[in-house]
Design a protein that fits this description.
The complex is a heterotrimer of chains A (334), B (266) and C (377). Chain B has helices spanning 41-57, 71-81, 99-113, 133-141, 195-200, 249-262, and strands spanning 3-8, 11-13, 22-23, 30-31, 37-39, 59-66, 85-89, 118-122, 145-154, 159-166, 169-176, 179-183, 205-209, 229-235, 243-244. Chain B is α/β, with parallel strands linked by helices and 266 residues long. The longest helix of chain C has 38 residues, at 225-262. The chains are: A alpha/beta (334), B alpha/beta (266), C alpha+beta (377). Chains in contact: A-B, A-C, B-C.
Chain lengths: 334, 266, 377
């Protein structure tokens, strides 16, 4: 690990609003910067986003490299990748954290490839640990096939780049008293950047109801809900608990939830105060989606289901009996 | 006219059998033997898209995969779906590759193939799910690329407009060929092979290349070419309480609710 | 001996499995309840090249052979037996024309049948008994350039939706095999039989009343009708019924096995109970045995052996596979308790379908007669 390179969080803004994952990355960045004794900075691209840059400072960035240009208003594949790679080469940070959003997942590999460096996707944790008696940044990644977790390192090349899924790490706390430097960098945006590829339209459709990631309670139904025929009981339970409905991939395939409500490795990640899993057996690519939850209640008919390893409270039983029972019991207090 | 279309595919363990995958205590490697393998589902969407483009504009579809010898079966399946020829990059030198080293191997192979117009990839695999190889390959080839593609519209001869997913909404991007598109399941429904197309597989070209056949420098591929590497695989200690409720259904529910209240969850 | 399926056969199995899981399984219960013929699925099968798998490419077939056909029928029947059974009855006339017909007949009928745009049936059975075809009453008398046909055929699967029907009739003291097209004056499909299984394949009677058929509707030579019919029924009918049986047996086994692993009684999945394991073990062994009897027979047909050479093999695989299917279905219903009797869980439907196989393409007892008579010759 190099001694003085900074830790950089690539901030992501859309329509002038900072994506929450950037705040999550800043909190982890702060932990690492303290541990390693290096500066935590951030990079932000866009147009008229100085306020967003300030938010990054309030959430822990000691420096923010601000690249503003009218043509950078929206994410532009070639321009963003080239400019980021450029500023990285110039300042040589040693670690780069990028949110694994739809955009981040495309931008991060482009930048890493430009720099011919290592990139690890959807980390669930990062910490400085020892491998073969030497200190390394450990990239913790969920592995498939049971309760497996992989530790990845990038021993040689710099910077090492990692992406982290939204909703996994805690957010940094906002403090308006924090002081940080906003460094305006005039980005060298060229016509050539838009000749081969150009974003022509961005349409944001606000989701109805509470977002999955900010809900206190998430009630998630899986394939086992087949026994009840539909998701109406899942909704009922969610309503009583004041939570939101989600589903596993099989539930999505069955049409009970749409993709925006699918929990799992290739879907959404949540860390609510209470996560209720109904009739989902607990395959790893599902459980990584809610690992960060404070308390997990699981209901399934199979006592051997792996979900019970990932739960705090487990109920084995026929869903057709247990779920109505649960609803009745909770109604008693309401 | 005729477009040269490339489709990158990967053979992965069947998701229904993920729970059977074991860890080798000694090497720390994943043991995949005996697990049924399939073409990565999104790669079939990618191939379907390539086949439709070929049917519309005429051309040739070449499928490429980097993998062990059994990955040839995945390529055969792709030929059965309608691809014209298959290329397997199979060599010990490719093993242990992270996404950059994989992208490098594909890069050198594609360079050997020559001119191309379009490359299709599945957005991510069901096993590692990084969604990185497509964008990295495009970077090495220095061509424009979009991830999360849901829809493709052909404009004039060399221009495309694609619609790509965002968390809440979408983005429209205009691209010039040659380009690389990483597609999602929204884009199409992959076709089934037919009896006729299955019987034609034996007559189609299947090429197997080693690292030296594509001129891939040893330091760019495989374990040597991987900036990242695995430092260990562990049992995930969830740190969960794992309290199983006992009794009748009513009793279990009552105890669970009481416990949840104690834990402050409700 | 290499017991592995060729790569093509493997890929074929995978494709049919996917077709069955994605397009047949979701509609299976609904189609069974409706009892209607499944035109959409048939056309789809035709487009995939699955119907004409024993017909030559020259006439629109895919010529992949009998083992391929066995695999197709097995995989479809695993999920939806009527579809597999359609590939049995619907293939009969296609084989008869291919093997005994002339070029004109092949060109006229086979392409549409291979594509699934048209369907066919084949009629041997009458009230006088399917097991006793030599005593049939339906008669075709040559008058000038036409045959005039009179008679009634019964228990004919698929004749109602069929565009073209093959049948056997007496011609003097011999027999002839004929083709009649729907809409021909004198052909009338009459009463539909209520069947306990394979409900979306209508089984009907049909009557021929002074039905005039031109000479060119005769398949092969006059007098060769019974040979044509029996060869066809042995090569296509019996192997087809065996394939359906294999599929049903495996379907029941897989459903029961999955259920046993998930169903909890006394705090454990019932799969740990010896009683259940013994039943599953029996099913496992029998299915495997039936599979090899059937596959080896189909393989030998692909090597060019005739149904005459393989009379015993064919009878044997139909006899055994159908018995196995019935036993497996019954065991599956048993293992699943009350769920086994619920149509939603499929095994009771599979049992009903299995019951229909006993008399298909020759009864189980006729199979034993074939075997017994041949081995004691």
């Amino acid at each position: 690990m190099s001694n003085s390179g900074e830790i950089w969080v690539i901030g992501e803004q859309r329509q002038g609003k900072l994506e929450e994952v950037s705040l999550e990355l800043l909190s982890k960045g702060a932990t690492l910067s303290q541990r390693m004794g290096v500066t935590l900075s951030s990079v932000l691209l866009g147009e008229e986003v100085e306020e967003v840059a300030r938010e990054l400072v309030f959430h822990g960035a000691e420096k923010v490299y601000l690249l503003e240009d009218a043509r950078l208003r929206y994410y532009q594949s070639e321009a963003y990748a080239r400019l980021l790679a450029g500023i990285i080469k110039e300042h040589e940070p040693q670690i780069i954290l990028i949110g694994a959003t739809g955009i981040g997942k495309e931008l991060a590999p482009k930048v890493a490839a430009k720099l011919r460096t290592g990139l690890t996707a959807h980390c669930i944790d990062l910490y400085v640990g020892e491998v073969d008696a030497a200190p390394h940044l450990i990239h913790v990644v969920p592995g498939w096939g049971g309760n497996l977790v992989m530790h990845i390192i990038c021993p040689q090349r710099r910077p090492q780049v990692v992406t982290v899924k939204p909703g996994v790490l805690p957010k940094a706390v906002r403090d308006e008293n924090r002081k940080g430097k906003i460094i305006r960098v005039k980005p060298d945006v060229r016509d050539e950047d838009f000749r081969r590829i150009e974003t022509v339209e961005v349409v944001e459709e606000p989701s109805q109801g509470k977002s999955l990631e900010s809900a206190d309670v998430v009630v998630c139904g899986g394939w086992g809900m087949n026994a009840l025929g539909d998701f109406s009981r899942v909704q009922e339970l969610a309503d009583i608990l004041g939570g939101v409905v989600a589903g596993t991939r099989p539930a999505m395939d069955k049409g009970w939830v749409d993709e925006a409500r699918m929990i799992g490795q290739s879907g959404r990640t949540v860390s609510p105060g209470l996560f209720v899993s109904l009739g989902a057996s607990g395959a790893m690519h599902y459980t990584t989606g809610f690992m960060g939850s404070k308390v997990v209640l699981a209901v399934d008919q199979n006592p051997q289901a792996p979900i019970f390893q990932m739960a705090d409270i487990g109920i084995v039983g026929d869903l057709r009996e247990v779920i109505p029972c649960l609803i009745e019991e909770l109604k008693k207090d309401a | 006219m005729g477009l040269e279309i490339l489709v990158c595919i990967k053979q992965v363990p069947h998701p229904d059998h993920f729970s059977e995958i074991r860890l080798d205590a000694g090497s720390g490697r994943i043991i995949r033997e005996g697990i049924p393998a399939i073409i990565n589902p999104l790669d079939r969407n990618a191939l379907e898209e390539g086949l439709r483009v070929k049917e519309r504009f005429s051309g040739r579809v070449t499928v490429i995969s980097m993998g062990p010898p059994q990955a040839q079966k995945a390529l055969e399946e792709a030929l059965a779906m309608g691809a014209d020829r298959g290329i397997l990059l199979c060599d010990e030198a490719f093993a242990g590759a992270d996404t950059l080293a994989t992208a490098n191997a594909l890069f050198y192979a594609i360079r050997r193939l020559g001119k191309f117009d379009l490359i299709y990839c599945g957005n991510e695999t069901v096993d590692s799910g990084t969604a990185q190889v497509g964008p990295q390959l495009a970077e090495l080839l220095d061509i424009p690329q979009v991830s999360g593609v849901q829809e493709v519209t052909f404009g004039d001869e060399k221009t495309l407009e694609v619609k790509r997913a965002l968390e809440h909404g979408y983005m429209k991007v205009r691209l010039k060929l040659p380009a690389l598109l990483c597609v999602t399941r929204d884009i199409n429904k992959p076709r089934l092979s037919t009896v006729q197309s299955i019987m034609e597989v034996a007559r189609k070209e299947m090429i197997i290349w080693k690292a030296k056949d594509i001129g891939a420098p040893p330091e760019s591929i495989g374990l040597k070419g991987s900036p990242t590497c695995a430092a260990g695989v562990y049992e995930h200690k969830a740190g969960r309480r794992r309290e199983m409720m006992q009794g009748s259904a009513e009793e279990k529910v009552r105890k669970a609710v009481a416990r949840l209240k104690e834990l402050g969850a409700i | 001996m290499d017991f592995n399926l060729s790569r093509e056969h493997e890929m074929l199995r995978d494709m049919v499995k996917e077709f069955a899981n994605s397009e047949l399984a979701p509609r299976a219960l609904e189609l069974d309840n409706k009892g209607e013929f499944f035109w959409e699925q048939v056309r789809r099968s035709g487009r995939l090249g699955l119907i004409g798998v024993i017909n030559s490419k020259e006439y629109g077939g895919t010529a992949m052979g009998h083992l391929a056909r066995m695999i197709i029928i097995e995989e479809m029947s695993r999920v939806y037996p009527p579809m597999g059974f359609f590939h049995q009855t619907g293939n009969l006339l296609m084989y008869a024309i291919e093997t005994f017909g002339n070029d004109k007949q092949k060109k006229k009928y086979l392409p549409a049948l291979c594509k699934g745009e048209k369907v066919s049936a084949f009629a041997l059975t009458e009230a006088s008994g399917g097991s006793d075809p030599a005593n049939m009453q339906t008669e075709a008398t040559l008058k000038g350039n036409d045959y005039v046909v009179n008679g009634r055929k019964s228990w004919i699967t698929g004749v109602d939706p069929s565009d073209v029907v093959g049948f056997v009739a007496k011609t003097g003291d011999k027999f002839g095999a004929f083709i009649v097209e729907k809409g021909t004056p004198g052909l009338e499909v009459t009463r539909r039989e209520e069947t306990i299984g394979l409900r979306s394949l209508p089984v009907n009677e049909f009557a021929l009343t002074n039905c005039r058929l031109p000479k060119e509707n005769l398949i092969g030579e006059e007098g060769r009708g019974l040979v044509c019919a029996l060869t066809t029924i042995a090569t296509i009918g019996r192997t087809g019924a065996a394939g359906v049986a294999l599929g049903i047996a495996r379907g029941c086994y897989e459903i029961a096995l999955k259920f046993a692993k998930e169903r909890v009684l006394y705090g454990k999945p019932i799969a740990v109970l010896q009683a259940i394991q013994f039943m599953l073990a029996d099913m496992n062994v029998e299915i495997e045995a039936a599979r090899w009897l059937c596959y080896s027979t189909a393989w030998q047909l692909d090597q060019g052996k005739t149904s005459r050479d393989l009379a015993v093999d064919i009878a044997r695989c139909k006899l055994y596979a159908v018995d196995v299917a019935n036993r497996c279905a019954y065991k599956a219903v048993d293992i699943m308790g009350a769920y086994g009797l619920s149509p939603e869980y499929r095994v009771i439907g599979l049992l009903r379908d299995a019951l229909e196989l006993g008399v298909a393409a020759g009864s189980q007892e006729v199979m034993k007669i074939t075997i017994g008579a041949t081995i004691t010759r």
